[in-house]
Amino acid sequence: MAMDFFEHQERARRQTGRLVLLFIAAVVGIIALTYPVIAFTVAAISQEIPAGGFIWRPDLFLAVTTGVLAVVALGSLYKLAQLRGGGRVVAESLGGRLVDSSTSDPDERKLLNVVEEMAIASGVPVPPVYMMHDENGINAFAAGFKPEDAVIGVTRGCVQLLDRDELQGVIAHEFSHVLNGDMRLNIRLIGVLHGILVIALIGQIIFRTLLHTGGGRRRSSSSGKKDGGGIIVIIIAAVALIAIGYVGFFFGGLIKAAVSRQREFLADASAVQFTRYPKGIGGALAKIGGYSYGSTVTSPRASEVSHMFFGQGVKSWLGAASATHPPLPERIRRIDPDWDGTFADTAGYVRSRQHDTSDSSDAARGFVHPQPIAALTGLIDAEPATPQQENAIDLLGSLTSHHINYAHDLIKSIPDELTHAARSTFSACAVIYALLLDQEASVATRQMDTIRGSVGQPIAEAATKLQPAVNRMDVAARLPLVDLAMPALHELSPDQYNGLKKCVRELVAEDRRIELFEWALSYILIRRLAPTYEPKRRVDPRVRFYSLLPVREHLSVLLTTLARFGHHDQLQVQAAFDAGTAELKLDSTVSLLSESDCGLKQLSHALQALNEVSIREKKKVIHACAACIVSDHHVTTAEGELLRAIADALGCPIPPILPGQPVI
User: Fold this and answer.
1) Catalytic annotation on 174?
2) Is the same domain home to 645 and 507?
3) Catalytic residue among 116, 135, 166, 174, which?
4) What pLDDT, on the 0 to 100 scale, is given for residue 250?
């Protein structure tokens, strides 16, 4: 059975809840240890130590509790604020440099090709890719709060020492963390541990300050003996705070390691499911074991984010207990039970690379089932029994090797001039405008005038040159082309982004009718760029509803819009609507609306409200939408684009419904 990422995201949220409980327990322990230190220090300075040595002052205990909570909370919030920029901040802190999406370097091109295919196959935005050029070890990571601000980071050793199969396995592993909701948990772990560590940092500051000022005071004060004694007591207290902080940090590290090890096993299993080639990720792990640098990351910040890496990035000084990753042999044997226990000879692979670094042929691309798009319509009948033979509704939220192959062939079907243009910041905007140009000449002329007036003549000319290629492109590749352009669009200046946003809205409104593709493109475009350029705008609001009953009116708008789209016969409309409501299991609380009550404007408003329900309920909503569009046993490209836009708007990107995939 294919892995369901809705369920894994729900598990990640439950794991976050358990992490919060452990964090509370750690803070309670810190308070319990800190109070005696502070109480003894205050009593020693005031010379009021009781005979039994035990000091209980409720007012002081309340002050210590408040102080510890404030310090830990502020320390955690400070670190999380530093990481607010998402994965880019993590990648840059590790010395990563953004890989130019238009690069011609063979290693970088191979890496970007793998990332693009995996992103389009899974339905998430194509993430920016960072290379850590100074790192010889074989390692990688995915970082961010959500797919919209995620990045993939790889070491130079990872790209240079792994062949394409192995690199694909590593990237599939990292995409599992993106899809499973692990990234947010990983960043929260960083914040939690930093908050605990602040206690120790405060102790260090007090220790260093008083050690310096105390000496001067002893030399200058007539009552130096008394003052010196007080300072010594405070220094001892500072040392105790350092010890308490590091003890808390130590146990927090054990929690982090335990959480991380389990997530790594899941990510390994997911990577095998995605690629259906265990020797890919297994070979990468074997090369780590046989390589002198292993998976070591030398950056000074590596220990802080060690739980994000593909392999053990920093040395575990307490053995398996503090290791953030399971032992390599155990990971390999879970993936490949036939592994003979021999690690790979990386030196031999380095020598072979000197003769061939090409990534141009399909054989070199490492695909398990390379097929042209036309052949995919017979995919199920031509393959042995696989999870792909389950119907489209059951497989929503599940990524398989068929999706990766489909993405590979879809990218290849896009004209070269469009893929090259999508990877450059200037021409990526022209690609977006070319996709929005109307087929009717008079409307297209007005749209070109709009582009000239909004962003200038050069980009208008570029869009005009690209329009013929857009017209002959397979319509199924339109949104994937937008995906390819995303990394380049993330490099726009704020003014360029505002110009793009304004121009897109004007182009969509130019023909005085908003078509489905125009709505889907503009909705996805702004949603994915907003985290970079509009950080104050909440793309994913907080969960307010754990049931669909409070949002049933919005569900009526959503399902009515889908039912009426592509159906003109009232009986078909009703059948599609009923198929959708049956997935919700809400009986008669959701009703079919008139056409005037379910346009794209109302749909946008409904999606904003539905974005406030829990992930478990969102799964029901997306399944209901899918049931609605497949009720006639046929999924058009336009319906697939609409479903994808809806899932993306709900913060639950899904792989595409494949051609030839059963829809009943």
Assistant:
1) yes
2) no
3) 174
4) 75
